[in-house]
Amino acid sequence: MQCIICREEKEKADFNDEHIIPDSLGGYSHINTVCTTCNSNLGTNVDGPLVNHFIAKYLRYRYQIKGKEGNVPNPFDSTYMVNDNADRKAKILINENGVIEPYFLPKIEVKDISAKTVSIMISVDNKDKNQFKTIINKIVQRNNLEKIDFSKLNPSPAGIVAPKLSAEIKIDLLKFKIGLLKIAYEFAITNIMDYVNDPMALEIANVLKNNDYGAVLKYANIGDGFQKEILAPFTDYLDFDSAKHYLVLWCIDGCLYCYISLLNTFVIGIKLSDKNYLDGKILVGINCLSKKNFVLYNYKDIIDMVDEVSYIPLLQFETHENFVKYKIEESHHEFGYIMNDYGFELFDRDGSSSKYNMNQLIDRYIDRINELVDLPNLSDDIIFDTEVYIKTLNGNQLIRLLGLKEIRKHTKKI
Fold this sequence. Notes:
Helix content is 22%, strand content 30%. It is of the alpha+beta class. β18 and β19 form a beta hairpin. About 2% of the residues have low confidence.
């Protein structure tokens, strides 16, 4: 069995479970084609820069996604200055209810007033108020002072109104992209049979094996990692604002690409090959956090799932008088056409029943164009290659049917 990362042949026992989208980001698609050695390296050096990215930690906190140790990360875990005062520090904690709370670190000032007098100023967070005496005793011991009569102390509560906390936060703009490259590569290898031996696939495997962060930009070259605009071709049908990850395999100018959207935040297009492996298909992987699943779709199936389709007949009238007659009849409330189980009932020029039905003519049209387009043109007319007619319901007027205008109404996104 060959590992898709190091490309070495190994025993089946040398492989273990690998998540295409890291489980620390709520990924639910598993593969078993990465050896344990490479899996360990991917977890630390490839997935690590992505799942531990400041923005990823915030997403994990927002969606309450636990890590391998069962904890939701605190994206604000840093030491902050209070009101731009470098002598006053605070941290941001997350309580047991998941609510963010400031925590002010103890501030201690010891000053010699005279040879026999020492001034001790202590301020602590309200959470530490019961530790007040313990803190003073440690100060006394550390400074060889006399014991303090706590009965003479009168701590007074004080608050900081609307404190402003500030800290320096560094955000990686490069290394995290290797994690996105891995997601695209594993998704393609899992769903495109011949891709594993593609020249660019071999290059990418080597980039991942060697943690070559600098080489990633050769492939992750559409968008800067956060540009949602690149998803525009799919926004009519994919609900990018939902708690989902999306992986889209499609071809542009004969080259294979994977577009990635992780919770509509990490967004990038990755070139995977100079070849077209999909024959006009678009494959979409949808990872839903709420349903805890990963489902693979053909994009055309998604369109059929979310659209309501209706058809308007494209008619041709032999004379102006026939057109006027039709418009008069159309204005009546009970106007309609003779229908059957397939839609419009079809007739020949002499008024006799046609040997075709609507489904057959639509299938003939689809067969003609199926190999000509990569993306379905949803507003194009369906033009028939056979002369057929339809009849009005009451006037029994025979009218040539040239084809249909397909009307699609988006009812939802997926």
